[in-house]
């Protein structure tokens, strides 16, 4: 196989973009296990007190992820995230105002492999979320598993990430006065297994938990579609019914995380590796769907709002697909 190396005369800003995305990929794939190993390793060195003191802090601080986390605005606004934004590049597109007097549940589609668009748009200030939606604070949900990793839990909370269990997701929505937006990658880890370039399968047909949560709190629903999210990585073909897909789904049900066999480019060459391709991601935030508070919705009420949400997401996709290189005959496929 011929290797296509990157030219030596690349400008410094492109090298910085690659470096920032490299640390982000490392953080997503390997930082949590690295932190766990470090925590136990320190116990058997002269620095054992670091792990002991952290364990005490962890015990005291255990419930913080369930109470909105601990965002650090300074870190969210660092210039390094602008380099990540420009690597792809990533763009946040507003289609309607969101009144900060209300709370919102924003459904993010599709999940993609590493949820690059969701992180850049809702965990950093690089794409202008605060300017486009003044008065709103976004909270991106992440698998609770990652909040059990020492040190790593504190790192991800700095970006406004909170666990995806019901209690932590409901906390921002229960605040009176509005101004909170919970962002849910609705398809979750299983949808990552469908994250192939050119695929528009959305795992949504049976996903109603986020709809019920919005009804219980009277939080308005906002569909979000991220064009290009599935284009930044290739993935080994794994059609439903194959042994590979069966194995991946089995492991996902046991571990809680999916294991897509993805690949793209490298750091110093463009032929293979785990770095994402430089392909644009445009995250389009749709119009809000008004939701009245209903603490005990009936099955019919839940189904009706769920269908309306799917219709609005489909309309959002059809309305904007022509702007982002999607064929006019392509439609969302709800799985």
UniProtKB/TrEMBL annotation:
Transmembrane segments: 21-41
Biological process according to GO: diacylglycerol biosynthetic process; response to yeast; triglyceride biosynthetic process
Coarse class of the protein's main subcellular location: endoplasmic reticulum
The entry's keywords: Acyltransferase, Endoplasmic reticulum, Lipid biosynthesis, Lipid metabolism, Membrane, Transferase, Transmembrane, Transmembrane helix
GO MF, one annotated term: diacylglycerol O-acyltransferase activity
Location in or out of the cell: Endoplasmic reticulum membrane
EC annotation from Swiss-Prot or TrEMBL: 2.3.1.-
Membrane topology value: Multi-pass membrane protein
Any Pfam family matching the protein: DAGAT
Highest taxon, organism lineage: Eukaryota
Family per similarity comment: Belongs to the diacylglycerol acyltransferase family.
Name of the molecule in the record: Acyltransferase
Organism field: Sparus aurata (Gilthead sea bream)
Lineage, opening ranks: Eukaryota, Metazoa, Chordata, Craniata, Vertebrata
């Amino acid at each position: 196989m011929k290797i296509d190396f990157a030219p030596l005369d690349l400008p410094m800003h492109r090298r910085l973009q690659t470096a920032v995305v490299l640390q982000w990929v490392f953080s997503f794939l390997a930082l949590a296990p690295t932190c766990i190993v470090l925590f136990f390793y320190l116990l058997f060195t002269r620095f054992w007190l670091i792990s002991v003191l952290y364990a005490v802090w962890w015990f005291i601080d255990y419930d913080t992820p369930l109470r909105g986390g601990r965002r650090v605005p300074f870190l969210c606004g660092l210039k390094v995230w602008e380099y990540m934004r420009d690597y792809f590049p990533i763009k946040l597109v507003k289609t309607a105002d969101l009144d900060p007097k209300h709370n919102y549940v924003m459904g993010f589609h599709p999940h993609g492999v590493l949820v690059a668009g969701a992180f850049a748009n809702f965990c950093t200030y690089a794409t202008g979320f605060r300017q486009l939606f003044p008065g709103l604070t976004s909270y991106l949900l992440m698998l609770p598993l990652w909040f059990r990793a020492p040190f790593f839990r504190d790192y991800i909370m700095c970006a406004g990430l909170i666990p995806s269990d019901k209690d932590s997701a409901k906390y921002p929505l229960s605040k009176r006065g509005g101004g909170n937006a919970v962002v849910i990658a609705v398809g979750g880890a299983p949808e990552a297994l469908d994250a192939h370039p050119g695929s528009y399968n959305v795992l949504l047909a049976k996903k109603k938990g986020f709809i019920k949560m919005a009804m219980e709190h009277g939080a308005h629903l906002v569909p979000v579609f991220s064009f290009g999210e599935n284009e930044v990585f290739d993935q080994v073909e794994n059609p439903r019914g194959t042994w590979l897909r069966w194995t991946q789904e089995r492991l996902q049900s046991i571990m809680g995380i999916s294991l897509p066999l993805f690949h793209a480019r490298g750091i110093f060459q463009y032929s293979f590796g785990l770095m994402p391709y430089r392909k644009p991601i445009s995250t389009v935030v749709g119009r809000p769907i008004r939701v009245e508070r209903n603490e005990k919705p009936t099955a019919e009420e839940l189904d009706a709002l769920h269908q309306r949400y799917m219709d609005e997401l489909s309309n959002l996709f059809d309305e904007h697909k022509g702007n982002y290189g999607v064929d006019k005959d392509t439609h969302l496929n709800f799985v």
